[in-house]
Amino acid sequence: MTKLSPLQIERLKYQPKLPSSLQNGVNSLEMVEGAPTQSVRDQEQIRNLFSHTYGKPTVTFKSSTSSSSEVRNVGVILSGGQAPGGHNVIAGLYDALKSANPQNKLYGFLGGPSGIIDGKYVEFTDEFIDAYRNTGGFDIIGSGRTKLETEDQFQESLKVCQKLGISAVVIIGGDDSNTNAALLAEWFVKNNAGIQVIGCPKTIDGDLKNDQIEISFGFDTATKTYAELIGNIERDANSAKKYWHFVKIMGRSASHVALEAALQTQPNITLISEEVEAKQMSLDSIVSYMSDIIVKRAAAGKNFGIAIVPEGLIEFIPEMKSMIANLNDIMAELETDPSFLGATSMHDKFSIVERRLDDNNASVYSSLPAGIKAQLLADRDPHGNVQVSKIETEKLLIEMISSRLSELKSQGEYVGKFSAQSHFFGYEGRCAFPSNFDADYCYSLGYNAFALINFGLTGYLSSVRNLTKPASEWIAGGIPLTMMMNMEKRHGEMKPVIQKALVKLDGPVFKQLQDNREDWAMNDRYLFPGAIQYFGPSTVCDITTITLKLERSKELASV
Question: Which of 29, 105, 206, 411 fits as disulfide partner to 256, beta carbons 3.0 to 4.6 Å?
Fold first, then answer.
């Protein structure tokens, strides 16, 4: 057996907290239906695509008298990128399933969605599950990014489920993974398969949320992990007083992670992608904004600072967004183009790309450093898009700011001494030991997922709300996956997908940054959150994110 660290030994002993409605088990519940629902946009198209699962009501659970439960075999899939707490979702699902009927079985499909297609699985046991409770990572069964969308995939999934006697599948993932869950649920109902599908909201990016899903799991732990690292760097910068640290932080399509980490640490500069897009800020204007703060700090004798850069920033800069969209389209063609595939140098590939791009986009692409141009041509993601995490935006900004400061210096302006360090915080936060909040929340999501199964629901997302209150006051229930969907262009075609929740520039979270960023730019208001605490007073160990507190306080004030 693998030797365990002292922390892991102690964390395995932790018993996650549940909403009061779930504390007596899923056989002691009553389901309360809400009003029928509709998709967030494109209602007619989504209704036509999901005619068997569209329009279902939201549901909540409350305690009731005890009843029996039939025997059920359930399969579970971890899908997409890792997020702290995934193991606890499975542990909660397992405990609920076994408490409902000890004869129930839980199968874990290995390697993500491909496991249910290829029939690769493991049956969970008490001993197996107990070794992973309250731990980070997805290594219990592994994850993957295979999309479930074709007839052949659905047919193979059905065969595997029938072989194992599986009557329900739980897919733990983000917006794309739960889009897969919605498609699979629809296909199973349409084909009278008798197999339910339930999703669980996972992503550290924080962009899978709405009125019913207050936060996706993993966001709490990941942002606390990043905030600890940023706080450490701030302490170092304030000690050495000679470096500007540019920190790119994970979160492709939304800046929730960067915004939360900034509120926890109060750096000198925080870029928010959604703001850049709304203000139509060019790359040049961003460089000017950052250079201005650097020069002002230098004049005050401060040749150091911290700048937070969202991972997906480059796609929100108007001229870059246009160029990348154009590039995504032509790269689909160039992947089979003999002249591009046979090019012997990157320079030749750059030339081929520039000739294919529209004139304005070609000009933007041509102006970029060679390293960035090469990164833009790297392998595409599963949707055929640029892998933004591989674009070293932080280094691009350092290079351009350095050039801008040199220009200003040549014009006689005092710019001080600019020395920069670059960092990318991404993988460091995806598999951390889950915070107490995520340990409790994830366990509740998994437990609640089986409650949804026990009531015969399909095409639903496990929902646990009222999360700023003690866990006993959390509200368990579910929302139809179709409620979150709209149509978006993927691989050149319009496809149904769960709509991403971006940072709201008129919301309380961004306003908190906006109200303080000028003060934080010049005055070193650095906060040092320190490591996640697992033992001690609840005021330290059970606190959740600033984002959730601010969003919930506004929601409650409007009630």
Answer: 206
DSSP state of 202: B
Residue 308 Cα distances to 234, 240, 285, angstroms:
11, 19, 16
Q: Evaluate whether 6-218+434-490 and 219-429+507-535 have a shared fold.
A: yes
Strand partners, 31: 61
Q: Contact at 8 Å (CB) between 292 and 299?
A: no
Q: pLDDT, tens digit, for every residue of 218-233?
A: 999 999 999 999 999 9
- Nearest CA to 435 among 260, 316, 253? 260
Task: Classify domain 6-218+434-490 at the CATH class level.
Answer: alpha beta
| Chain centroid, CA 449 distance in Å | 20
User: What is the CB-side half-sphere exposure of residue 534 using CA atoms within 13 A?
Assistant: 21
Q: Read off the amino acid at residue 463.
A: S
CB 36 within 8 A of CB 47: no
* pLDDT for position 3: 83
Please report which helix (H) or strand (E) contains residue 498, including its range: strand 493-498
223, two tokens: 């942002």
- Burial (CB < 10 A; 0-12, 13-18, 19+), residue 408, is middle
Q: In what order do the strands lie in the sheet with 121-123?
A: 29-36, 57-63, 475-480, 460-465, 196-201, 166-173, 73-78, 105-109, 121-123
Instruction: Tell me, letter by letter, the H, E, C secondary structure of 107-141.
Output: EEECCCCHHHHHCCEEECCHHHHHCCCCCCCCCCC
**Residue 400 identity (one-letter amino acid):** M
Task: Return the residue matching tokens 């437990």.
Answer: 447
Please state, as a whole number, how many other Cβ atoms lie within 10 Å of the Cβ of residue 195.
21
d(CA 255, CA 273): 6
For the chain, the domains span 6-218+434-490, 219-429+507-535
Active site residues: 205
The pLDDT value given to residue 138: 97
The DSSP bridge pattern shows strands 196-201 and 166-173 to be: parallel
Q: Which CATH superfamily is domain 219-429+507-535 in?
A: Phosphofructokinase domain (3.40.50.460)
Show the 3-state SS of 420-446: EEEEEECHHHHCCCCCHHHHHHHHHHH
- Collect the ranges in the chain with pLDDT lower than 70: 1-2, 381-384, 555-559
Between the alpha carbon of residue 419 and those of residues 136, 294, 299, 305, 307, the distances in Å are: 36, 11, 15, 10, 13
